[in-house]
Inverse folding.
């Protein structure tokens, strides 16, 4: 059965919670990615910042360039383990209407990220998600 580790991106761009939201926006744009995990100074995962999160911060903070990543990120993160079935990432994203899952290793350290694009690439490549179709 296909595992998350088989489709994840291991080299993950991350953001620090107290970084400038403007700098984070540029970082996402330069890398052509839609979001990134956010960590605190100790390295602990504290959220995810997406380009969508950057659309709706407090206008005064945003215009002045004073918003931090922590001000605009989403602290509710879907995390799964690298050895979990890849199908669980697809199901989790569909249920929560999100486009990325943060992947942890067995020691609960950041191991990678799976995006909806990774799921599409895997399906297009014909990889077996282990889905069993049943008649309704």
């Amino acid at each position: 059965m296909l595992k998350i580790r088989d489709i994840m991106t291991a080299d993950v761009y991350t953001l620090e919670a107290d970084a400038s939201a403007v700098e984070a926006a540029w970082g996402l744009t330069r890398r052509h990615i839609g979001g990134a995990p956010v960590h605190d100074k100790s390295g602990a995962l504290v959220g995810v910042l997406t380009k969508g999160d950057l659309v709706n911060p407090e206008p005064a903070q945003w215009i002045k360039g004073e918003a931090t990543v922590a001000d605009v990120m989403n602290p509710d993160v879907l995390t799964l383990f690298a050895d979990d079935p890849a199908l669980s990432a697809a199901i989790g994203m569909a249920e929560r209407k999100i486009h990325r899952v943060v992947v942890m290793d067995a020691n609960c350290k950041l191991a990678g990220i799976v995006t909806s694009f990774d799921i599409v690439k895997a399906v297009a490549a014909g990889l077996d998600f282990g889905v069993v179709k049943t008649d309704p």
